[in-house]
Automatic annotation (TrEMBL):
Pfam families: LRR_4, LRR_9. PANTHER family: LEUCINE-RICH REPEAT-CONTAINING PROTEIN 49, PROTEIN PHOSPHATASE 1 REGULATORY SUBUNIT SDS22-RELATED. The lineage of its organism: Eukaryota, Metazoa, Chordata, Craniata, Vertebrata. This is LRC49 protein. The gene is Lrrc49. Keywords: Coiled coil, Leucine-rich repeat, Repeat. It comes from Chunga burmeisteri (Black-legged seriema). Residues 562-583 are annotated as: Disordered.
Length: 667
């Protein structure tokens, strides 16, 4: 459009002087519609609006009627520009049915109207007005370019008949949702920048779309973009995209060559460029910068490393979750076991306290007590996930054992490197009596272990600490209060220091041991070892004494192999020479061994009782026979004497009879 001064005659339906036409001049500014059609952004900052002065008074003007002179029609037969004319309504354009380009930029128009007769209109520009809804264009079937940027439109609607639309500019409005455009199969350029969009969707059917501008919205997720077969340029700058998963569908687009994501949270990530280039290898430009082959190669390498890191992170997460579930399962099984033990003890106690008969009748037994333990506790184990019942884990220099089944790991073939670095052994959800049985294996398998931890191990008595004396060396001891009732006993630390004095403990529950603690332990429990040794049989004391001397000898042999520069603590320990014989008398017998001894004692008692009963029975039989003999003996003696006298009365016959008996015996 050329700069020119036009003399337009505007006729209105109601003017004060109807016989005098209303005249005004329009000084047209240069505006290239062709250049605007080819713009990618369509977001140019235009100058501010002029004062909102009405084109005419509403009381005196209904719609202005625009008529051009014949000369103007010849010069610009198919074009009409009415920009910056302070129009509040679209004027009635009379006799211009052949118009193809119509420009209403920078006015105050609130509604599209009075243009339905322009059947040949191809280009309609209503940029920078006050339009609140799309209307009045349904008859413009030839329209190819519709520019409605910088208005007040809240919804995309009433475009059903504009099937030939090529460019649709709706930037700078208040649109919150993409809708009602799937029928625009010829649309090539869609500008929705500076709106209120949060999700990109409903793009199906836009088969010709090559450029989509969504800058300066609130977009956080994108859908359906991969269904656009010809999309080449996508502008997503300054939105709320924070992860690549939000735009994952872009990786499936084979036609996309230019994309902008600057101004989004995702663009601040270190992996941003590499990830985008790795998943969208067809891109030629990213954030308006051309992509080189070196950048593609580096992106592919970095993306592979990132993928490996993510897989490893995911694997570690799965392992941690599996560990957590396994430990929870072990803890539940431990709780069930403890409840079972408590229930057995309660039933046994009730059984011992329950009289067999009351007034000749059996005592009443509660139904709950008559049920089996499995029946009582079956509800407790229902619904548990089938997981490992134990867990063995090496974390740095710590060996963690969860569940009784973990103790079997001591029989494995551990590598020399692993056994050498283990310093701390942690026991959780394992009965202490079961731990005692593997302490010998522990000190052989992990000779450098100097720190023992116990949590939920049922340490209940001071006597149980005696079992730790068989370890090779202990420098630290940690007994968690959870699941170990012995910690509630105030003097338990002093007893540990006294009984394990030969280990020269450094810390107990993370607290450093002082000389005052050792002195106090000796004062409190020193007499205990003397009493224990005095109560033992003499042969047992001698055997313990000999064992202690052997330990001293072995300790001295080990000391000779060490370098001369040993520390003062080791020197003190070597002078002590292992545990004393008195302390060795304080030992611990596990429940199983104690039960075996009780069973053995019971068997011996039964045997002795049976033996004595047999002796008494035999003695009673002998006594009864003796009494019977005493009663029968006088009569038996008389009969013996009588038989003897009768036999020897005939001496010759008696001698022959004796000789005959002798002969019979020889034969």
């Amino acid at each position: 459009v050329n700069n020119c001064g036009l003399q337009l005659v505007i006729q209105t339906s109601s003017i004060t002087d109807k016989n005098k036409p209303f005249e005004f001049k329009i000084n047209k500014e240069q505006s290239s519609f062709h250049n605007r059609l080819l713009q990618h952004d369509l977001e140019k900052n235009y100058s501010g609006r002029q004062d909102n002065t009405n084109f005419g008074s509403s009381s005196s003007i209904t719609f202005p009627i625009l008529q051009r002179t014949a000369e103007e029609k010849i010069l610009n037969s198919d074009r009409l520009t009415l920009e910056r004319q302070k129009l509040t309504v679209c004027p009635v354009i009379d006799g211009e049915d052949h118009l193809r380009l119509l420009n209403f930029q920078h006015n105050f128009i609130t509604r599209i109207q009075n243009i339905s007769n322009l059947q040949h209109l191809v280009f309609l520009d209503l940029y920078d007005n006050q339009i609140e809804e799309i209307s009045g264009v349904s008859t413009l079937r030839s329209l190819r370019v519709l520019l409605l940027g910088k208005n007040r439109i809240k919804k995309i609607a009433n475009l059903e008949n504009l099937k030939n639309l090529d460019v649709l500019d709706l930037h700078g409005n208040q649109i919150a949702k993409i809708e009602n455009i799937s029928h625009l199969s010829e649309l090539r350029v869609l500008n929705l920048a500076r709106n209120l969009l949060t999700i990109v969707e409903n793009l199906n059917g836009l088969d010709s779309l090559t450029e989509l501008n969504l800058r300066h919205n609130q977009v956080s997720a994108i859908k359906d973009v991969d269904t656009l077969p010809r999309l080449q340029r996508l502008f997503l700058s300054f939105n709320n995209i924070s992860s690549f998963e939000d735009i994952l569908c872009l990786a499936d687009s084979s036609s996309l060559s230019d994309i902008t994501l600057d101004g989004n949270p995702i663009a601040q990530e270190t992996w941003y460029k590499h990830t985008v280039l790795h998943h969208m290898m067809q891109l030629r430009q990213l954030d308006m910068k051309r992509i080189t082959e070196e950048e593609r190669r580096m992106a592919s390498l970095a993306a592979r490393k990132e993928e490996e890191r993510k897989r490893e992170s995911h694997r570690q997460t799965l392992l941690k979750e599996k560990k957590r579930l396994t430990i929870c399962n072990i803890a539940r099984q431990w709780e069930i076991q403890q409840n079972r033990i408590a229930l057995v003890a309660s039933l046994n106690q009730d059984k011992d306290n329950e009289p067999c008969q009351i007034n000749g009748s059996a005592a009443y037994v509660f139904p709950e007590e008559s049920r089996s333990l499995d029946t009582i506790l079956s509800s407790a184990v229902q619904g548990l996930t089938v997981l490992e019942s134990h867990l063995v884990e090496v974390e740095g220099d710590t060996l963690c054992l969860y569940g009784a089944g973990a103790l079997e790991c001591l029989d494995r073939n551990w590598s020399v490197q692993t056994t050498g670095i283990i310093v701390t052994v942690s026991f959780m959800f394992i009965e202490f009596d079961e731990i005692v049985q593997v302490l010998t294996k522990l000190k052989i398998k992990f000779p450098n272990s100097v720190h023992l931890k116990f949590k939920e191990t049922n340490l209940a008595t001071l006597q149980q600490f005696n079992a730790l004396a068989q370890m090779h060396r202990i420098e630290q001891l940690t007994v968690d209060s959870q699941g170990n009732p012995v910690v509630n006993f105030t003097l338990w630390k002093y007893y540990v220091l006294f009984r394990l004095n030969h280990f020269n403990l450094q810390k107990i529950n993370g607290v450093k041991v002082t000389e005052n603690d050792i002195v106090m332990a000796e004062r409190l429990f020193g007499i205990l070892a003397y009493v224990a040794s005095s109560e033992l049989p003499h042969y047992r004391v001698l055997s313990l004494f000999g064992e202690s001397r052997r330990k001293q000898f072995h300790y001295l042999l080990e000391g000779k192999g060490k370098k001369s520069g040993i520390g003062s603590e080791e020197s003190d320990n070597s002078r002590k020479g292992g545990e004393s014989a008195n302390r060795a008398t304080l030992n611990y017998t596990t429940k199983d061994i104690h039960m075996e001894k009780l069973e053995e004692i019971k068997e011996r008692k039964t045997f002795c009782q049976t033996y004595v009963e047999n002796l008494v029975k035999e003695a009673a039989d002998i006594n009864m026979k003796n009494e019977s003999l005493q009663k029968l003996w006088p009569q038996m003696f008389i009969e013996l004497v009588r038989d003897a006298v009768i036999e020897i009365r005939n001496k010759n016959s008696y001698m022959k009879l004796c000789l005959q008996r002798i002969t019979d015996q020889k034969q």
